[in-house]
Design a protein that fits this description.
- Helix content is 41%, strand content 23%.
- The chain is α/β, with parallel strands linked by helices.
- Strands 3, 4, 5, 6, 9, 10 and 11 form a 7-stranded mixed β-sheet that branches.
């Protein structure tokens, strides 16, 4: 296979544009003899004559024009590469892999991607659904660039992965937790309902260890240890059990915003007022990685999504 020399192809194209070896040499800051030598070397390399005498000048052969047709396509592709690399360096292009817990995908990541398509169309986001603990494992392994997870407390107070020096963590927002009650519950419409009023209830926990920790921490802060009666991984299952009177549950507002109660008409969602518990939505990157321009754009778009959307 022929090994192509871009510089020689550029000289050939310049000769076609300028018409003479002398003008070509002047344009490329070369000597005429150097131009002639490079073109002779190119002809030997491809095995065909590229120039023919035309009076006191030379002109391109048919083979040379065929070669230039391909060269023009190569140069156009290199121009696109230069443009894309410049955009990448400025953060206007690139790929960012995001690992996100299930409720964050529709409520947080999808709106951010829509905004990025307008503001930074060259930034591509690849999404991988992963619950909180797994997201950090993927981040550490280099399989995602940004991990969205949850914490019962803000990062400076939280233990576990947040204290790992490999990661930089920032809080995107604090997501309020409402309590889901069966529609016929005695406290479903009680004024001034507080979490402590539900100390004697059976509780439905989320399936992940982290979500159970968030529920437990919220109830303990209200002065009681909740009785864990059931657990489920999905909010539709949790709310179905609430509707059936099997217990009560803390539900993040982000999980049900814009969706009613996932079609569960027999569930009442109660705001717990100023004392409402919250879970913290955390974005984590490998330490130092947050400075990458494309990743910075993705973080900015995630921060701009209204909480509880």
């Amino acid at each position: 296979m022929t090994e192509w020399d871009i510089k020689k192809l550029h000289i050939l194209r310049t000769l076609d544009e300028r018409g003479t070896v002398t003008a070509t040499a002047r344009a490329l800051l070369m000597t005429p003899s150097a131009v002639s030598q490079q073109l002779s070397n190119l002809a030997r390399q491809v095995g065909v004559d590229l120039l023919e005498a035309h009076g006191r000048r030379v002109r391109l052969t048919g083979a040379a024009r065929l070669l230039l047709g391909h060269a023009d396509a190569v140069f156009a592709q290199l121009e696109r590469a230069d443009a894309e690399l410049a955009a990448y360096a400025q953060g206007e292009a690139g790929e960012v892999r995001v690992g996100a817990f299930s409720t964050a995908v529709p409520a947080l990541v999808v709106p951010a991607v829509r905004a990025l398509r307008v503001a930074h169309p060259g930034v591509r986001v690849r999404v991988r659904e992963a619950e909180a603990g797994e997201a950090y494992e993927l981040l550490a392994a280099g399989e995602v660039d940004l991990a969205l997870s949850l914490a019962a407390r803000a990062p400076r107070e939280a233990g576990g992965p947040g204290r790992d020096g490999r990661f930089t963590r920032v809080t995107l927002f604090a997501d309020p937790l409402d309590v889901a009650l069966p529609a016929g519950h005695a406290l479903a419409h009680a004024p001034g309902l507080g979490l402590a009023d539900l100390a004697g209830e059976e509780w439905i926990f989320g399936g992940s260890g982290l979500w159970s920790e968030i529920t437990l921490a919220a109830c303990e802060a209200a002065g009681f240890v909740p009785q864990a009666a059931h657990s489920a991984a999905g909010w539709a299952a949790i709310l179905a059990m609430v509707e059936a009177g099997m217990g009560v549950a803390l539900v993040p507002r982000m999980a049900v915003s814009g969706r009613g109660a996932f079609g569960q008409g027999g569930v009442v969602m109660r705001d717990l007022g100023a004392a409402r518990p919250r879970r913290h939505v955390i974005a984590a990157t490998r330490r130092g990685g947050e400075a990458a321009p494309a990743l910075s754009h993705v973080l900015g778009a995630l921060r701009a999504v209204p909480p509880g959307r």
